[in-house]
Amino acid sequence: MTAMLNVKDLRAYYGQVQALHGLSFSLNEGSLTTLLGANGAGKTTTLRAICNMVRSTGAIEFEGKPIGTRSTENVVRLGIAHVPQGRGTFTNMTVEENLQLGAISRSDTKAIGSDIERMYEHFPVLKQRYTQQAGTLSGGEQQMLAVARALMLRPRLMLLDEPSFGLAPLIVRDLFRILGKINREEKVTILVVEQNAQLALELADQAYVIETGRIVMSGNAKDIANNEDVRKSYLGY
Amino acid sequence: MELFANQVLAGIATGAIYACMALAVVMIYQAIDHLNFAQGEMAMFSTFVSWQLMQWGVPYWGAFVLTVAFSFAAGIVIERLLFKPLAKAPILTNVAGFIALYAIINSVAGLIWDFTIKQYPTPFGSSPFLGSQLISTHQAGMIGITLLMLLLLFFFFRFTRVGLAMRAAASLPESARLVGINTSWMIALGWGMASAIGSIAGMMIAPVVFLEPNMMLGVLIYGFAAAVLGGLTSPFGAVMGGFLVGIFENLVGTYIPGVGNELKLPIALALIIVVLVVKPAGLFGRAIVKRV
User: Fold this and answer.
1) ipTM for the complex?
2) Does A67 touch chain B if contact means CB atoms closer than 8 Å?
3) Rg (Cα) of chain A, in Å, rounded?
4) What number of other Cβ atoms are within 10 A of residue A41's Cβ?
5) What distance in Å separates the CA atoms of residue A141 and residue A224, rounded to the nearest whole number?
6) Chain A within 8 Å of B167 (Cβ-Cβ)?
7) CATH topology of domain A3-88+155-235
8) Which positions, given as ranges, span the membrane (chain B) (predicted)?
9) Any idea what the Cα angle at residue B27 is, between residues B23 and B28, rounded to 5°?
C-alpha cells in the first residue's frame, strides 16, 4: 500500500512555545488511523499543522505533493476535510446551508444536491431538521452535521478532532459506527484524534500514541489495545 | 390626522437618505466586523467621479454604471493596499486607518473639485410625487432604489454560493477556511460591495444635499444611527432603521413644542439610545439561538 499522507519531522510552535518536537508518521490510503494521547500531548496541534493553521516546520506530503506551504483553504481544496474540535458549526445558518458550505469549493455543482440526499441517508436526524438553525441542534446532532459537512467536500482524507467530546456514550457508538461505514463504503481515509482510547482502538486499524509532541508508539490498533503496558502508561485504562 | 400622515411621509422621504447609507454601513460591518468611518467620504468621492463623467458628456445612467463599477474596484483596492495588512492589528489601529482614509479622501476631493457647492442632477425629476407636496419624484425614486438594493442583497446572500461563502467567512472565519473558502478575498469583496452601494447612496443623496466634499458628514452619522437602531447584522433592519430615524425626526419636530430644526435631531438620537438600552441587538438584529 502507498502512503497517502506522509509527515516527517513535524515541529509546531505557538509563539515561542514549541508544541511538537519532530513528529513523523504516515497514513495508508483507505486506512482508519487513530492518534491517541493525553491532554496537551499535541494531538490537535498535529491536525492543525497538516491544515497549516499553526506555524510549523518539517515535511508534509499529501499524495506525493508537499503541502506545508499551502494556505488552509488550499489544503482543504486538495480533498482534506478537517472536522475541528468544537465542530466549527455555522450556528446561525440552517442545517442545509451548513451542508452546502461543505461543498462550497467544489466545481461540480450539479452533484451537490444528490450528495446532500446521501448525507441525509447516513444521518437521518439531519433530514428532519434541515431548515432548522444549526445552533439549535443537540451536541450529538451537531457532531453528525460536522461530519456530514466534511463529507460534502468529497474528501480523500478526513481529519477528525475528538469527535466524541461531550457526547453521551450511546451517541459516540453510533457516530463511530457511521465513521467506520464511511471509511469502508466511501473509501475515505480517516485520521481520528481521540482521548477515548478504548473506543478509538476498536474502530481503527492503525494507531499512533503521542506524548509531549513526539510519537512514542505505533502499530496495529489491536496490538496496541492488547498491550497492557501501553494501556497503563499512555492510555490510562 | 392628515398632519400626522404627512409628517410620516416626509419622514420616510428623509429616511430614505439614511437608509441608503445605512445599507452600505451594514454591508461593511458584515464583512469586517468594524464600522468604516471613511464610508461616507468614499461615497462622496464616487459621487464626484460620476459628476465629472457627466461634465465630460457621459449620460446619467452611463455615468451611474461606470461609477458603481469604479467604486467596486476602488473598494477592493483600498482593502488590498491598506486594510489587508491591518487585518490582524488591534481594532484601534484599524480605527486610525479609517480616520486617516477619511481625511485623505476628503482633502483629495477638495483639491480636485474644490469646496464650492455643486448642483447634482436627478434621473427621476423633482416634481411633486402623485400630487403630494411632501415627497418629490426624486425622493420616491430614491426609496425605490433603496428597496431594490435591499431585495438584490437579500437574494445575493440567501441564494447564491458567493453570498453563502461571504456569510460563512464573516460569521466564523476559521470554519470558513476549513471548507475551502478564501476568507481574505471575501473581505475584499465585502469592501467592494459596500463601496459600490455607498456610491449609489451618494448619487441618490447628492441631488438633495448638493455635491461638496463635506456632504456626507451628517448623513453618515444618521446612517450609523440607523444601522445600529435596525441592527448591524441585518440589511433589512438597516433600511427600516433609516426610515424610522427619518420619521422620528419629523414627528419630534412637529409634535413636541419648542423643538425646532436644531433640536429634533438630538432628540431622535436620544430615542435611539432608549431603544438600544431595551434591545441591544437593534430592532431587527438577529438573536442567535444557542443550545449548550
Assistant:
1) 0.90
2) no
3) 17
4) 23
5) 31
6) yes
7) Rossmann fold (3.40.50)
8) 12-32, 60-83, 95-115, 135-157, 185-209, 265-289
9) 125
